[in-house]
Design brief:
Trna Endonuclease, Chain: A, domain 1, three-stranded mixed sheet, two-stranded antiparallel sheet, 3 helices, 38% helix
């Protein structure tokens, strides 16, 4: 196994552990997830992450658009209803410092739910006050 594959596999396990510890979800690395390929096509790198199709990347330099395209392509291959995201970190960063990348359209439902949870009412655009 190459050093980069070992590093990527380790990050997937580390990330799954972090999510289990902080959210209490039964999350783990997907079998044969390295490179996002299994016999049936692409798969998420983590399983047990409700609502999210996770592509994990541990690299110093990342093309976030290419990584997100990979997540979207794998999601489409599996007909998953989950939201494709990329979680990435560089060396010498903690797991909690990882970045999460998703499209704005995919982000809005999560943000809207957080706003509602904190008591912010949703106003349709036609009811909002015009800005000065």
């Amino acid at each position: 196994m190459s050093a980069s594959k070992r590093k990527g596999d380790g990050y997937e396990r580390e990330l799954a552990g972090y999510l289990r510890e902080n959210l209490g979800i039964d999350c783990h690395r997907a079998p044969l997830s390295g490179g996002g390929f299994v016999i049936a096509g692409g798969t998420a790198d983590l399983v047990g992450t409700p609502l999210l199709f996770v592509e994990a990347k541990r690299t110093e330099k990342i093309s976030v658009r290419a990584a997100l395209r990979q997540a979207c392509r794998n999601k489409a291959t599996t007909n998953s209803p989950e939201t494709p995201i990329v979680i990435t970190r560089q060396n010498r960063m903690t797991t909690g410092e990882s970045l999460v990348v998703l499209t704005l359209d995919d982000f809005l439902p999560f943000y809207e739910a957080a706003l509602e949870k904190h008591g912010y009412a949703h106003q349709p655009a036609e009811q909002q006050q015009p800005r000065a």
